[in-house]
Design goal:
The structure holds two protein chains of two kinds. By secondary structure, chain A is mostly helical. Chain A has 16 helices and two strands. Chain A has helices spanning 18-31, 38-54, 61-86, 94-111, 116-141, 145-164, 177-183, 189-216, 224-246, 253-271, 273-283, 285-290, 295-321, 333-343, 355-374, 379-406, and strands at 169-171, 323-325. A two-stranded antiparallel sheet of chain A has the order 1-2. The radius of gyration of chain A is 22 Å and the shape is globular. Helices cover 36% and strands 26% of the residues of chain B. Chain B has helices at 42-49, 72-78, 95-99, 112-125, 142-154, 172-187, 199-205, 228-236, 242-252; strands at 2-13, 16-27, 31-36, 57-62, 65-67, 80-83, 160-164, 191-195, 208-213, 216-222. Classes of the chains: A mainly alpha, B alpha/beta.
Amino acid sequence: MSTLTTDRQDERLQNRDGLRGVLADVLERARGGDLGVIPVVVGLVVIWTVLQILNPIFLSSANLVNLTLESAAVGIIALGIVCVLLVGEIDLSVGSVSGLSGAVLAVLFVGQGLPVWLAIAASVIMGAVVGWLYGQLFNRFGVPSFVITLAGLLAFLGLQLYVLGTKGSINLPFDSGLVNFAQLDFVPAWLSYTFAVVAAAWLFASGYLHARERRRAGLSAKGVPMLAARSVALLAVLAFVVWYLGQTRGVGWMFVFFVALVLVMHYLLSRTKWGRSVYAVGGNVEAARRAGINVRAVYTSVFVLCSTFAAVGGILAAARLAAANQSSGAGDVNLNAIAAAVIGGTSLFGGRGTAFGALLGIIVIQSISSGLTLLNLDSSIRFVVTGAVLLLAVVVDSVSRRSRTSHGRA
Amino acid sequence: MTVLSLRGISKTFGAVAALTDIELDVAAGQVVAVVGDNGAGKSTLVKILSGVHPPDAGTITFGGNAVEIPTPAAAHRLGIATVFQDLALCENLNVIQNLFLGQEIRPLRLNDVAMETRSWELLRQLSAKIPSVRVPVAALSGGQRQTVAIARSLLGDPKVIILDEPTAALGVAQTAEVLNLVERLRENGLGVIMISHNMADVKAVADTVAVLRLGRNNGVFDVDQVSTEDIIAAITGATDNAVSRRVQKGARS
């Protein structure tokens, strides 16, 4: 290139183009503590290798199909946790809210005989109201979010038990569309491949249009070969996943729904003003306030989102089990959701993380859970291992944060 | 041409008269340094101009019209931009994201190309030395952060820009960079109010110096015709003060 683009004129900048440059950039960033998805991917490979050696069924198509279906419910809850963590707060009550949501759904749908869509809508609205309540308490009284939501954890667990009544368990009819959706609905092979092709084509098209716009504005942009390589890589990965899962049952609609939510959240967080303000509030609340951002509205919106996702996750969990009972949302649901978000690279200190983190994180968590179940290990050991992995993720977060500070990358 | 002028501004906090009968004039393309000891009322003055506190009495004339500045947003609308001492940047966001924070172009589908182009324009206008606008602010030096904060205040095309202690936390080279920046603002025809403690900086870039002492005007000087000693005397209220005594002691030994 004879003339330098506007953003590459400073002589101190090292210009790295092409695939080699990208690799060099990634290496450099990792050294500076900006690890991105590297620890998750490495962790996943290690976990899969170990579990596969211990039990050859683990990486079988049937088990992986099961794994994707099991991930969806908690993964959606983790997606909400990512939003709350991004503003530097926490929601500890997602498990209880998901359990309550399942109970409300079952009581309205089975107990009261309402149409299923109405029961679902009621549960989701219930979740949103809970989040709104948290937002109000947080904004008006300035109570730390972990205390509010800890109170919520207990209160909504109580409410769940009350709603379920003395029976304590309500079965959902197997022939309902909801249970079908969670257990039996799979994307036909041709449609799965179409999704993969559309995703790759869309990645290329949006990248190409963006690069063209940048070039017109006199800024540096990715070249076509680079964009094509990226799309082909995505297509290869997706096609392989679809093919491998297709050896048995295929890709579940519930998992597709989860991935769709991840994509929507990714767009909202990275490409809208609201997303920017979420990151800004997590980075420096005072700066955000002075920049004219309505900080209270941002807090309320993330609490509402988180509880709503928890409710949606609760509905899917109930549908997957075809029942809502007293232990729905209890036990490790809370911690699994938070662990998934943190393992996926969302910082507990606020301001860092992505929606895709929830997807990666939940696959790690669910792999451990599924692998240990296959080994016939007791849930006691499963808890210990999951706890250890969460601790490891938090340590990686803290260490990379320290390293980032010393390398000048927030 | 005077852009901003204050007449008879007073402000009390309870029993304390923070400002009494203050006068101040700022013209386009003029750098006015406001100096004074701790508690002289500099910060209160900044807060009145940036809309944080309303004054109790007095008139503010902006561009020939009497105005009121009840809120920070009102100050912004008038064209008075303030860069506070702590800069208020988000370290996890990059330069573009910080510059456009709260005023992003196309809220539902951010137009990052337009924002990046405009960012470069702003920085070039300030002849700022920032290698890349895509690095998080955490990676920038103190002087570069000050530059980003000043560039951000320029986004709304202000007429007057208030800098609160812009060089307080900076090293020698970075201070020089920021002083260059202040001169650039003046060349661009902005009125600049610079709060400072540093006499060398004041002498270097200011056109006039307004001294506050105990909440009152204690003289407005033309920088070319006043010595540092005279300014210090006006700040402390005496020719025989701690600073002058130290100077004499140094001369004797």
